[in-house]
Amino acid sequence: MDEEEHFEFEMFGISSRERDFRLAWSLNVTLGWELARVDDLETQQREGSSYHTRFTYQDPEDQTTFILLSNRSEEGLMLPEWSQFDFLLKVKDAPAFSGEDLCRVLRKVPMVLAAFPLSLEKLKSKYNLINA
In what order do the strands lie in the sheet with 48-58? Predict the structure, then answer.
């Protein structure tokens, strides 16, 4: 597999003061999703590992997969380059997709303070996202 195949997804940064489960609930209620918690994502840090909560939902109509990840944990940041974001949203297999449209919708969720599309091009720690 070449590198491009590993990164065929869109990423969004989300700022929220809420706990992970409350943000997932708010996204579910507002957007009609069914995010459910799955196993935490383990990432390697300079001094050991860090564990980040993960919620997933696959839209039954178009098979788009949404993965909500906490960027912060007690052990460190999953993506230090994006330390300003509390959460990350990974979107896979979206057939007809507009990142700006999704950001506009995310910004209307009551518990979301900010939402922005993110670029993986110059991100050094992007390999932490492959197994997310």
Answer: 36-45, 48-58, 65-70, 87-92, 9-15, 114-118
Q: Which residue from 95, 96, 103, 75 is spatially nearest to 11, judged by alpha carbons?
A: 103
Beta-carbon contacts of 100 under 8 Å, excluding residues fewer than 6 positions away, are 117
Q: Residue 107 and residue 124: Cα distance in Å, rounded?
A: 27
| Token pair of 34 as six digits | 């069914």
How many beta carbons lie within 10 A of that of residue 41, not counting itself?
19
- For residue 6, what are its two tokens? 């590993």
Higher pLDDT among residues 80 and 95, named by residue: 80
3-state helix, strand, coil in the chain (%, to 5): 25, 35, 40
Helix extents (H) in 20-76? 20-31
| pTM exceeds 0.85 | yes
Contact of 85 with 68, CB cutoff 8 Å:
no
